[in-house]
Amino acid sequence: MGRYVIRRLLQMVPVILGTTFLIYVLVWSLPGDPFAAKCGDRPCPPAYIERMTNEYNLDDPLFIQYFKYMANLVTGDFGQTFSGVDIADELISRYPTTAQLALIAIGVEILIGITAGVLAALRRGGFVDNLVLVSTLIVVSIPVFVIGLLAQITFGVQLGWFPVTSDGTFYSLLMPGFVLGSLSLAFVARLMRTNLVENLRADYVRTATAKGLPRKRVIGVHALRNSLIPVITFIGADFGALLGGAIVTEGIFNVPGVGNMIFRGINQHEGATVTAAVTVLVLVFLLVNLLVDLLYAVLDPRIRYD
Amino acid sequence: MTSPLTPAGSTSAPGGVPLPEEELDTERHGAAPGAGDRPRSLASDAWRDLRRSPIFLISAVIIAVLVLMAAVPSLFTNAEPDQCNLQLSRQGPSGSAWFGYDLQGCDVYARTVYGARASILVGVFTTIGVAVLGSIVGMLAGYYGRWADTLLSRLTDIFFGIPLLLGAIIVLATFPSDVGTPSWQTIGKVVLALSILGWTSVARIMRSTVIQVKHADYVQAAKALGGGSRRILLSHILPNAVAPVIVYSTIVLGVFVALEATLSFLGIGLQAPVISWGIAIDQAQTYVRQSPHMLLFPSAFLSVTVLAFIMLGDAVRDAFDPKLR
Q1: Domain count within chain A
Q2: Superkingdom of this entry's organism (chain B) (predicted)?
Q3: Which of A47, A75, A103 delimits the end of a domain?
């Protein structure tokens, strides 16, 4: 296990260096004026250009620029918004809300998605199975911002069950959380169904049944645990889509989180704020993936002995 | 096996969603063919299966209508999408305008019909871009192996580390379009942003199939006969390794359509002179309580489009997956 963890950590280093370098080049070093789009609708004031040139060391050669930028990132300095607020401070004050939202969304995915997948797999070809297949197909094809707006009109405005916009309290985060969770709910349900159907046909399940174990134990312990492994990997790999979805959902429901900050940044054409905040999200995504990989090795011993 | 797969590939319009390999109805494909059967190519088998699949036929009809709508929108509506009357602003559906009018008093039906073009263009060109870029990287990595493989695979890992929507936001926030940008440039930027970041899965798929194919006898034979690398790659390996990429491409086309709408909704994808469902939905958002028709019709078209491509992707995957036979 220790060796596996070290190997994964080492593999992570070039990926993090590569992605941050890629983003840095995309934002600051492609041909053209890097300040064309960073100050809202007006051209950038010279003072701002001077400040950013200093901050991002734009007069240095590319690799030195990037090196200094990374040194800043590592020490927690993510740059400043157009109005001069530290992005790190903004992020720190906003991230608990977004984390809560993401947790609700993942909770919804796991609870509803896995239940639906298991029910469908156990009654394969039956009514529930077809219902799950058709409803997941429909949920998948409606983009998350449409689901969000529809939920807002129906449950917020017409039925009045949930607040229309969120103030960051748990109750007001429920509806946005559900909307965000619906993004991957369908994939989780389908993946769970497929895996369970496959595992129910596996030899070890037949052995367990032949030993005389009750069906509940065969399904609940033997088949289910093995079918969960790919689902967990998927939820980890899908975390990036979840973060993207959070930008949309937080924008629609006005949730005071990180996504909303990016949403407003886009609307006000503050390129520097948007790119800095999104870079942080990409780093979070990479770290979450690393954690999921490690968790994967805990769940499935075959992985660490490769 | 050497017969080219392109006939089946080109007859099936693309579509779908990145469903993690789930199976649909295994039963439908019945038993494996007996030993006495005449050998058929994967492509002709897949095409035979597809023609019988109701899901394929339904989605193909919807997509055909959408493509026609994108190509010749005036067939579907007499109204001009950019001739608007402010007096009609936000009027609901009526006999003269089935879908009602939007904020500027433009006919929502006309704008929805004309909006198909941008979505289809972005979807198709991004899919082509992703398939070509990914195939090239994957083929080179898989065929040459060694340091080329190491280098290209690490490069793929790096691009894979940036989630598509987040990456597209970074690129498009850096190179925004405005009202003055010509339409083709606005659309081109979205296509480029999505292609540059979205090719990694194709590359991984292509690499693994090329590694399987390159040790085949006919490739060895072609080498022994003195075939050059380019010839071997293009006329021996590519035709036999392209099927999984075709399947994946049909599956992601719908995703790109949805992503374009999401980016346009955020205000960072397509911009004003281009007519797009995402922009229409963004505008409708503010008036959702008073005039829900502005939201519902573009949303319905967008969802049906994505749904059609997903169903097509499902059908194509089922037809091409030899495991299900």
Answers
A1: 2
A2: Bacteria
A3: A75
- Report whether A121 contacts B280 (CB < 8 A): no
Chain A residue whose CA is closest to B155 = A18
- Any idea what the CATH number is for the domain that residue A159 is in? 1.10.3720.10
Q: Which residues of B touch A150 (CB under 8 A)?
A: 299
> pLDDT tens for residues A277-295?
888 888 888 888 888 888 8
Residue in B23, B288, B303 closest to A153 by CB: B288
Q: For A141, which of B164, B292, B307 is closest by C-beta distance?
A: B307
Q: What stretches in chain A show pLDDT beneath 50?
A: none
CATH code of the domain covering residue B178? 1.10.3720.10
Report how far residue A50's alpha carbon sits from residue A44's, in angstroms, rounded to the nearest whole number: 10
Report pLDDT for B213: 85
B288–A266 C-beta distance less than 8 A: no
- Give the integer Cα–Cα distance in Å for A123 and B221: 50
Q: Which residue type does A91 have?
A: L
A240 touches chain B (CB under 8 A): yes
Please indicate whether, in this complex, the C-beta atoms of B258 and A143 are within 8 angstroms of each other.
yes
Q: Which tokens hold the place of A22?
A: 């890629």
Residue A80: inside a domain? no
pLDDT of residue B96: 66
How far apart are alpha carbons A170 and A177 in whole angstroms? Answer: 10
Q: What is residue A33's predicted lDDT score, i.e. its pLDDT? A: 63
Helices B243-266 & B293-320 angle (0-180, nearest 10) = 170
CA-to-CA distance for B195 and B127, rounded, in angstroms? Answer: 8
Q: Enumerate the residues of chain A whose CB falls inside 8 A of the CB of residue B21.
A: 194
Could you read off the pLDDT of B55-105 as tens digits, one per residue? Answer: 888 888 999 998 988 888 777 777 777 777 666 666 667 766 666 777 676
> How does DSSP classify residue A202?
S
Q: Which residues of B251-290 are buried (b: 16+ CB within 10 A; e: fewer)?
A: bbbbbbbbbbbbbbbbbbbbbeebbbbbbbbbbbbebbee
Q: Does B163 sit within 8 Å of A143, measured CB to CB?
A: no
Q: Coil, helix or strand for B316?
A: helix
Q: Do A234 and B20 touch (CB under 8 A)?
A: yes
Q: Which residue has the tokens 């905040």?
A: A277
Q: Are residues A112 and A228 in the same domain?
A: yes
Q: Is A102 exposed, middle or buried (0-12, 13-18, 19+ CB in 10 A)?
A: buried
Contact A266 B266 (CB under 8 A): yes
- Asked whether the beta carbons of residue B24 and residue A263 sit closer than 8 angstroms, the reply is no
Verify whether the Cβ–Cβ distance A146 to B302 is below 8 Å.
Answer: yes
- pTM of this structure: 0.80
User: Residue ranges of chain B with pLDDT lower than 70?
Assistant: 1-40, 42, 85-92, 95-99, 103, 105, 179, 321-325
Task: Kindly report the nearest CA distance between residue B169 and chain A, in angstroms.
Answer: 8
